[in-house]
């Protein structure tokens, strides 16, 4: 059930908010109406599109990108409960006063933002590959929680290179791509096998380990790489499921061959 929510004047001058596109800001405000009284909502781009942009020429893919944009600026946080993904407005309690709250969704907990399992992209061994790159920007792991009404003067997040991002993940005890990252939901909905994501991560990391490229949000950058299939690793035939391209098959063979190699050269003797 939609609710009436309040917007504080400082919302408009918040540096977090100003770093978002105008449409993402509108989506953020719209989320408040449909979140439960704890600031939680299902992290479904299709549902959110139907609620906030029912009559607009905006796709669920566009909505997902806006959600990623809000997440990269610490305005929302994704979390999982069971096998379902949710989002939480990070500054909810500070900026929304509710006399008789009712709760529809599982409570948000930082513990629910767990890291990747062992079958997911490894911490230090992936890199980006070739292909067209967008300007995805995202912050290092576990950025400070923010709110829609942060005061001006908040320190802007700096861009970092890929090795620095990997090091920050290690220091935080996190994986480069978290288990509740929305890219996994996207891949499932699109019919892209999880193993293909591992290949994409390997190529992504391979490219950026020495590229010197700077990003605020490497995770969002990786999402763009997958959604736009920058590396041309898979394709969808007119009938049947997603398949690897020649480049994808080659990368898979390289990965599998590398996995069979001894860790130290002397072990091969």
Describe the structure.
By secondary structure, this protein is mainly α. It has two domains: 7-109, Orthogonal Bundle (Arc Repressor Mutant, subunit A), CATH 1.10.10; 125-136 and 155-260, no CATH class. The protein is built from ten helices and eight strands. The protein has helices spanning 15-18, 22-34, 45-52, 60-72, 92-95, 162-172, 182-190, 194-208, 218-227, 246-260; strands spanning 40-42, 76-81, 84-89, 127-128, 160-161, 214-215, 234-235, 243-244. The strands form three sheets. The protein has a three-stranded antiparallel beta sheet, with helices on one face. Strands 5-6 form a two-stranded antiparallel sheet. A two-stranded antiparallel ribbon has the order 7-8. Helix 3 (45-52) crosses helix 4. It is globular and about 60 Å long. The relative contact order is 0.14.
List the helices and strands and how they pair.
Elements: H1 15-18, H2 22-34, E1 40-42, H3 45-52, H4 60-72, E2 76-81, E3 84-89, H5 92-95, E4 127-128, E5 160-161, H6 162-172, H7 182-190, H8 194-208, E6 214-215, H9 218-227, E7 234-235, E8 243-244, H10 246-260
Antiparallel strand pairs: 1-3, 2-3, 5-6, 7-8
Helix pairs in contact: 2-4, 3-4, 8-10
């Amino acid at each position: 059930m939609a609710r009436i929510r309040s917007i504080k004047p400082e919302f408009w001058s918040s540096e977090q908010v100003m770093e978002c596109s105008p449409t993402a800001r509108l989506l953020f405000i719209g989320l408040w109406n449909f979140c439960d009284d704890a600031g939680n909502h299902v992290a479904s781009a299709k549902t959110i599109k139907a609620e906030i942009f029912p009559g607009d020429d905006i796709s669920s893919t566009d909505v997902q990108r806006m959600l990623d944009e809000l997440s990269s600026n610490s305005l929302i946080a994704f979390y999982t409960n069971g096998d379902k993904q949710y989002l939480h407005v990070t500054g909810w309690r500070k900026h929304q006063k509710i006399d008789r709250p009712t709760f529809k969704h599982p409570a948000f907990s930082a513990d629910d933002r767990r890291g990747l399992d062992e079958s997911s992209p490894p911490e230090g061994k992936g890199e980006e590959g070739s292909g067209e790159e967008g300007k995805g920007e995202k912050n290092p792991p576990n950025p400070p929680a923010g709110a829609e009404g942060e005061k001006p003067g908040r320190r802007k997040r700096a861009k970092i290179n890929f090795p620095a991002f990997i090091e920050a993940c290690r220091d935080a005890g996190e994986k480069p791509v978290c288990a509740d990252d929305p890219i996994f939901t996207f891949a499932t909905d699109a019919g892209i096998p999880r193993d293909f994501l591992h290949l994409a991560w390997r190529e992504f990391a391979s490219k950026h380990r020495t590229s010197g490229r700077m990003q605020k949000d490497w995770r969002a950058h990786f999402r763009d790489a997958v959604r736009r299939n920058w590396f041309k690793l898979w394709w969808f035939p007119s009938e049947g499921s997603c398949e690897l391209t020649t480049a994808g098959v080659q990368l898979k063979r390289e990965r599998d061959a590398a996995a069979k190699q001894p860790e130290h050269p002397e072990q091969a003797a």
